[in-house]
Specification:
Keywords: NADP, Oxidoreductase. The chain is α/β, with parallel strands linked by helices. A six-stranded parallel β-sheet has the order 3-2-1-4-5-6, with helices on both faces. Strands 7-8 form a two-stranded parallel ribbon. The two termini are 30 Å apart. It binds NADP nicotinamide-adenine-dinucleotide phosphate. The site of NADP nicotinamide-adenine-dinucleotide phosphate has 22 residues, from α1 and β2.
Length: 193
């Protein structure tokens, strides 16, 4: 992974019960990483715990920055996987340890914000972001081969299992979108052609 997340490090996953989050928790635990998650309900946090998450934070009732500081003796986490973007940027920077890395994959909290960059200099932080859509076919093929090499063995061994909440035929894509917008799901919503 671009963030160089390594065994023994700590990793905060926002939206731990999401399609992405449920997979990220399992692969990180498989690699020997301490996992922190945020989610919006006790049911979702219990699911994250069941998948191996070590520290589960309800972002609706708790201040995640304060809880991370408390759980890490004031140090912060090494890497954050963030699907929120703008509205979390300051709090994410405040939650990172020295040499910490923030990896942004979504803007559910907007793409525009104002931020105090001081923590970046003080703690040598890195902000990265990436998407899949605008990549060349060659680059996508490279990603698939890296996944085959580094992730697939854990899936074959049953150490990492996709969490599927519900499947829909392609003709019912609108229903699937409606379910995703309601955001009561835990894991992936699949469309089957
Ligand atoms: N860059 C890329 O390559 C890439 C690839 C795939 C997906 N994505 C992005 O990654 C994100 C997740 O995708 P997904 O398929 O896993 O979607 P998803 O299953 O719908 O997950 C979205 C999650 O965000 C949670 N959430 C919303 N506000 C939150 C907050 N303030 N703090 C913590 N969690 C919050 C929701 O649950 P609760 O609020 O109820 O906890 C829900 O679990 C999306 O933004 C998607 O666009 C990016």
């Amino acid at each position: 992974m671009t963030s160089h997340l390594s065994p023994g490090e700590s990793f905060l996953i926002h939206g731990g019960s999401s399609g992405i989050g449920t997979f990220a928790i399992q692969i990180a635990k498989h690699l020997g990483i301490k996992v922190f998650v945020t989610a919006g309900s006790e049911e979702k946090l219990a699911a994250c715990k069941g998948l191996g998450a070590d520290v589960c934070i309800n972002y609706k009732t708790e201040d995640f920055v304060a809880r991370i500081k408390e759980e890490t003796n004031g140090k912060g986490v090494d890497v954050i996987l963030d699907n929120i973007g703008g509205s979390y940027l300051q709090r994410n920077l405040n939650s990172l340890a020295v040499d910490g890395r923030l990896f942004i994959i979504g803007f559910q909290g907007g793409a525009v914000t104002e931020v105090n960059l001081q923590p970046m200099l003080a703690r040598r932080l890195t902000i990265q972001a990436a998407g899949l859509r605008n990549r060349s076919l060659d680059n996508k093929a490279l990603i698939v081969s890296e996944v085959e090499k580094n992730v697939w063995p854990a899936v074959v061994e049953g150490k990492v299992k996709p969490v599927v909440y519900k499947t829909f035929p392609l003709s019912e894509a609108a229903e699937a979108h409606k379910l995703m917008e309601e955001s009561s799901h835990i894991g992936k919503i699949l469309l089957i052609p």
